[in-house]
Design brief:
The protein is an alpha+beta fold and 402 residues long. It contains 11 helices and 16 strands. The chain has 2 domains: 253 residues, 4-Layer Sandwich (L-amino peptidase D-ALA esterase/amidase), CATH 3.60.70; 121 residues, Ubiquitin-like (UB roll), CATH 3.10.20. The strands form 3 sheets. A 7-stranded mixed sheet has the order 9-16-11-15-12-13-14. The two termini are 19 Å apart. The relative contact order is 0.14.
């Protein structure tokens, strides 16, 4: 189940970036579950990772490898998270990196591993190693859609976004793919996201821009309030295209990068496990962005709000109650205004005088819903995106390991 239409975009080739896939049988036969992304020499690479204390072995290894060398390959497997696997997990991730490095003629530190799937099971290193030759043989600059399929787990559709932006010295292309459907409440990244561009950017600036774009995109979505052990988002800048040199170039590039990441993040919410609704939560007139996000996530994480959304039940009191228990000191409820789409729900401490059940039910029946909350405390704002909570979400996760 997914919300809205989805058409995978045309992805212009990015010189030096090639993608390959294989069916390694990691969890299920006859499906793409192994992906390689080739990074050209001289590229800059930035990445953000989960802050979950039980972060997966590939997260540890990828961080360490980034400190030692500029990556030449990204190695992604689905079907197994290689998380909660202790020292063996680290050894297995390193073994996979070494296997690819030996075949590709690079050193193992130039391979970054990424995994997604079931937590707590040993990584099937032999199957991954056996699939590497085919993945390398299939490397192609036009394989973005195949790679997007190869990183899926419970996703029901592939996710991609692309932009081209004119800088002072020419046109830059930005392509990205992501996966994610459940266990979504990112903290510094998403489930998995891979973005490449042909811009020339210094690594330090690329890292800064990625972190800023991630904060208002992947870090602004939630399906079920669960932060994954394996979250990672990687950005490649090949340096084979125009340089980002002026302040206007930086603004244009960062806007396009944020658009790509936001589209990928929203695609995760549209494809959330069991989702029937795509919900935008806008919190305005907050004293700080932190405060605005705290209120938005409190509402988004409420099971009562999420089940009311699924039922198209205009039970506006659940939204009011969630706002009231948000971790914000000294909320003045008389100054809070809550709108559901074009319908005023709450003002002056209670139900708006203009509200009718018919009007509320009309908005709740829509596939895409905006909840706007004005706190009356300041000028800061934040927007996050979430989904409803359906019977199918429970079924998908109850059956996940079967």
């Amino acid at each position: 189940m997914a919300v809205g239409q989805s058409i995978f975009p045309r992805m212009p080739a990015i010189d030096g970036v090639r993608l390959g896939t294989a069916m390694a049988g990691i969890k299920k036969p006859e499906r793409r579950d192994l992906v390689i992304i080739e990074v050209p020499e001289g590229a800059a690479v930035a990445a953000t990772f989960t802050r979950n204390a039980f972060c997966a072995a590939p997260v540890h290894v990828a961080k360490a490898h980034l400190e030692h060398a500029t990556p030449r390959y990204l190695l992604i497997n689905t079907g197994n998270a290689n998380a909660g696997t202790g020292a063996r997990g680290i050894e297995d991730a390193e073994s996979c990196c070494t296997a690819l490095a030996d075949l590709a003629g690079v050193v193992s530190h130039q391979v970054l591993p990424f995994s997604t799937g079931v937590i707590g099971e040993p990584l099937p290193v032999e199957r991954i190693a056996a699939g590497l030759p085919h993945a390398l043989e299939s490397l192609d600059a036009d394989n973005w859609a195949a790679a997007a399929e190869g990183i899926m787990t419970t996703d029901t559709r592939i996710k991609g976004a692309s932009r081209q932006v004119e800088l002072s010295s020419g046109r830059v292309t930005i392509n990205g793919i992501s996966k994610g459907s459940g266990m979504i409440h990112p903290n510094m990244a998403t489930m998995l996201g891979f973005v490449a561009c042909d811009a020339a950017v210094e690594p330090a600036r690329l890292t800064q821009w990625l972190r800023e774009a991630v904060q208002v995109s992947f870090n602004s979505i939630t399906v079920d309030s669960d932060t994954s052990t394996n979250d990672a988002c990687t950005l490649i800048a090949t340096g084979r295209g125009p340089a980002v040199v002026s302040a206007d170039d930086e603004r244009r590039f960062c806007e396009a990068l944020t658009e790509v990441l936001t589209e990928l993040a929203q695609a995760i919410i549209r494809d959330a496990e069991g989702a029937t609704k795509f919900v935008t939560l806008q919190v305005e007139q907050a004293a700080s962005v932190i405060e605005a996000r705290a209120v938005a996530f409190t509402v988004a994480h409420s099971p009562l709000v999420k089940t009311a959304l699924y039922a198209s039940d205009a039970n506006w009191g659940r939204i009011l109650a969630a706002v009231g228990r948000a971790p914000v000191d000294d909320l003045d409820v008389d100054r809070i205004v809550i709108d559901l789409g074009d319908v005023r729900l709450v003002e002056q401490g209670g139900r708006a005088g203009s509200y009718t059940e018919e009007a509320g039910s009309r908005v709740m029946a829509q596939d895409e819903i905006t909840i706007r909350i004005q706190l009356g405390r300041g000028e800061e704002a934040a927007t996050i995106w979430t989904s409803d909570l359906s019977h199918d979400y429970v079924s998908i996760n109850a059956d996940y390991r079967s």
